[in-house]
Amino acid sequence: MASGDSLLDSLEELDDFSDSGSDYEATTKATKRRKPPVTGLQPPKRPRRKAALRVSSTSSSPSPIPTPPNPSLQQHSQGTSRQASPRPVTRANEGNGGISAEDIYDAVRSGKSAMVTVVDEWLDSYKRSREAGLLVLINFIVQSCGCKGVVSREMLDSMQNAEIISTLTKEFNEDSVNYPLCTPGPQLRRFKASLCEFIRVLVSSCRNSLIFDEYLFPSLLALLTGMSDSQVRAFRHTSTLLAMKLMSGLVEVAVIVSVQLQTTQRQYDTENSKREQDRASGRLEELQATISELRENREEVSSMMNATFRGVFVHRYRDRLPEIRAACIEELGMWLKTDPEDFLNDGCLKYLGWTLHDKQSPVRLQCVRALQGLYQEKEFIGRLELFTSRFKERMLSMALDKDPEVAVEVVNLLLLIQQRTEEGLKEEECGHIYPLVYALNRGMASAAGVFLFNKLKSVIASDNQENDKSENAAFFQILISFYIQSEFHEHGAYLVDSLWDVARPELRDWETMTALLLQEAGLMYEEEGALIELMMCAIRQAAQATPPVGRTQGKKILGMKDKKVQEQDRRRVTTHFIPLLPQLLAKYSADAGKVSLLLKAPLYFNLEVYNSAPRLEKYLDLLLSQICGIVEKHTEATVLEACAQLASTLCSESYTFSSRAHLAFSQLLDSLTECFSTYLSDLLQGTADDDDVYSAATALKRIAALSSAKDPTGWKLFGSCLELLKSRMESRELDKELMVSALKCAAFYLMWAKVNAVNSTPAEGELNRLKKEMRSFCRVCQTCLSLNQAEIRDQAFELLCDLLLLYSTSSARSEPALQALVHLPSDSLRSEMAAFLLDYVFSDTEDAELNVENEEEMKIRLLQRKRNQLSGYCKLVIYGVLELSAATDVFKHYSKYFKDFGDIIKETLSKSKLISPIQSAKTVCLSLQQLFSEMLTEDHSRQDLGEIRDLAKRLAMSFGIDLHRVRKPLVALHMDGVRFAFREPREGEEQHVNVTFLEILSEFSFKLLQPDRTKLAAFVKSECPSAALSWPSVRMYQRSLEGRSSSKARKPEEGGDVVSTHSSPVAKRKRTTAQGSVASTIRGSWLDSSSIHSVLHTPALTSTAQRQSTKPLASKKPSATQSDISSDLSEDEFSLGSQIRKVRPVKRHQLSSSQTGPPLDQQDLNSHLTLLSLIEDEDEDAEREEPEIEDYESDSEHESTYTLPSTRHTSASILDELFE
User: Fold this and answer.
1) Torsion of CA 1205, 1210, 1215, 1217, to 10 degrees
2) How far apart are CA 800 and CA 768, in angstroms?
3) DSSP label at 717?
4) Distance between CA 283 and CA 535 in Å, rounded?
5) What are the pLDDT digits (tens) for 1002-1034?
6) Are 647 and 658 in contact (CB under 8 A)?
7) Rounded to whole angstroms, what are the CA distances from 442 to 293, 390, 408?
8) Full 3-state SS string of 1101-1144
9) Which stretches does UniProt call biased (Polar residues) (predicted)?
10) CA separation for the pair 335, 206 (Å, rounded)
11) pTM score, whole prediction
């Protein structure tokens, strides 16, 4: 059906659209000027057959529906005065005897009743009395909004819609902001679905009769249109949803009527073409009458659709509430798809184009889904060409939407555009989507994988016309090319996982992959490496059925069917690769990168298959032979680690063939030990040349790698390695490879010896010998900590942490017989390990020495190594190997190195509180005391004190929000701090040099309870000399105990004590003074500022956007301040954040009361309710314009309020806080 003049010629005219000139509003303006006395909802007093002829045919504004709205629908906007109800409100269905509004609401809310039955009962009631039936339906809608009010018959007869809504507004529950459509939990989804189902069934049941009675639906839509314009969010949201669902039902009815009209018209034309004597008598007249009736029905439905579109959709699609905008756009998509003749034009498509820029993701999501429904229909593509060309760039940019769900749907939409449109997407446009296959979000990556797969398939289809290469071989060729060109060569697992759902058959074609690898002159060198990596990733994916690291898919439990498929895939991998893997290892044995990948394949095998047939045992022998050959051929750490991991798996006692694996690797260790022993005497005597040192180092490196998988104690290498280490350190010939390998071999010997001691019952002499060996090794490692070779030093520290933990007291608790093996570190070793932390972990010297080439990669490796070392040291503290006080060297770097080690230090801090809360608090205080003493001994400044206070603030936040649980630890911390501040000076020291420490201690005061504050205030007076009570630092601390926020006292008072130096315990080695972190400085300056207490004007919250004020607002702080607040507060700072948030409602309340003029008790509530205007002022109509596309800017970083030009009169009122 043509839409006539209502259609726009092109999208270039979109910006000229303005709903202010529509018929609906023209009538509204006229009634505003005249304001005749019109009663409430009255049925039209004109014949139904002439309904379409009585409406105005002129329109100054385009509309998707050709027929103007029914004037009866506009009665709700005539007048704004409200008459009082003459008598109290009564039950709406009193005396009717039919279904009540409460019955319908209960049925919809429960979701368990059949909606057809509910609607049939209401229809029976309506047929008995249409006024009473309409009243029941209206009260059901009011109840669905969460309103306690009831519309009586008298109100319906005597009041305008605006007056009815104003009356109902007073009946809202002021104690709760929730209403049925926004109730959290599954109940929301159930109620919304039931409500929409009720409306659908209602329209379906009335489509042949009651829709055209000119009473029910016009009256209902008039009320919903008025409610959709209310400032009350519950009214606006519920009525908009119902109106949109009614509109969808009317669109379906309009399509049905149009089809019936076309069919009847064809029948009439056929009958009319017959000769007069062949026509059935009266047939033409009957068909003509039917055509006339159908045209009237079509015009009646079009009138209601037009009024709803202009009265509700045009205003609510840009409502400030995203749920309302999303509901409008969702239904618009249905209209476009259901009735393309009337809706699929530029005048309606522009709304989808505009909302692509919406700042709320649910609205963008509904918009993209609506577009998907359109692009799926081939017959719509021609009408979408102009829209596609105009908004394609925006859709491409949305592939990187901050909401992953929206991004997934956008990629699916772009795939439809690529497949259905003639032009599709250019190669550079596809380049926006390809990198998404490496995204962490699995849904997004899978969608991009589908897009990539379809693109690859289209390229393969065009290439196969030129050559006869097999389709899967061509697929792997082009996939390899894409993987190499993408330059993400370490993320093959993510690419395979992205393609797994759509290209699983191709990725499980092991035969094609191995054939490509084994054929001569098949692939290039780089292509072989890429194919091996992708093949290994596919093997892992098939065998384990789990996504790679970071792509979590929730707690997905594999079902029986998935487990069966996984087991079948694993068996197929095993049977295919068992005979071919030795061939692949033999071909690529010289390439370290490729062979290290291939060695991972047996880890995914079902290794029991080796025992299933005698012929497969030879392949096991071939595999073991290849592994041993690779170990003897390579010295790269990655290859040796892969061999050791595979050897550990094959030697597992759970397999019957493990004895053969043990034999093979024992023979390999024999040969390696013999090789090492050959050069040992020369090494100890210092007569070995460089070749001898290299040969011994490589043999020892291979032995160390295998020792991680197989028990090496039988080869008695500990003594040799220890002698070698001692001799090399004495001669200062520090060969890195040789000494690191010797350290590893000796450490693995001690580890396996401890395991054997636990699993058996060794003699006492054996235990004493093992403890002596442990003591000797610790002394050697302690010496290594002072060497200038970083690799040797780091390896010694890491092995010390592991072995001290393995031989600790806690490890022997379950085995009392092993108490003789407990080895505690000596005082000198503890000091050396603490100094190692200060010099090499909490230090930036090594970072500065890195060369420019591969700088980023080296920094990452260095940071990872430091994190491992710090973790090892913290474990020693947590498990009791070191005293809790040893953690001071860790805690005092919490602030400066928070970015690199914050998570480790925070976890150590929380674990220490579980061990001993009081001792942990004292350790925190001790770390601050050490930093303060270091500051006094160096060139001190107020900036250094500020950095220590920032650290104290961060440490204070770690005590949590349960103040009763941390009472004793906090009191102990404060008492230790006060004693330190007023301790007696040593000989040669000044008096009370530590009193400034009280400023640092005040950062912990806000966590104290009032009784503890009083107790500590008395303690300060008892410890403090009477003359010192007036000192600034003491006064600041006393004020913090009086309950004031420590943040208010951040700025030190002028004329404070000058900090002087004095002797105090310092670290063993001199360290660089810690520079203040940028984050701490920013946060400190923010707390000093008064932005929290600024009195900004709070705008009144209205249905769409705040009306522009004639008076300029007061100057505001930059918006970045608020974003800094939210980003700067960590989880630990919950307490401070809650204090800040509490300020805002108070300020807002004060502003509201001041802005609304006279006090509330001096004003009548009814006078405020009249501000809920349902119509527009003429001056607003003159100023209002339809938003241009440029007005909508996508904000990919901030989720802010969606603000659009106002479409309704709004005013600040006392209802703002209640309804918003």
Assistant:
1) 30
2) 20
3) -
4) 75
5) 999 999 999 999 999 999 999 888 878 888 999
6) no
7) 56, 30, 10
8) CCCCCCCCCCCCCCCCCCCHHHHHHHHHCCHHHHHHHHHHHHHH
9) 73-84, 1101-1128, 1151-1170, 1201-1213
10) 19
11) 0.73
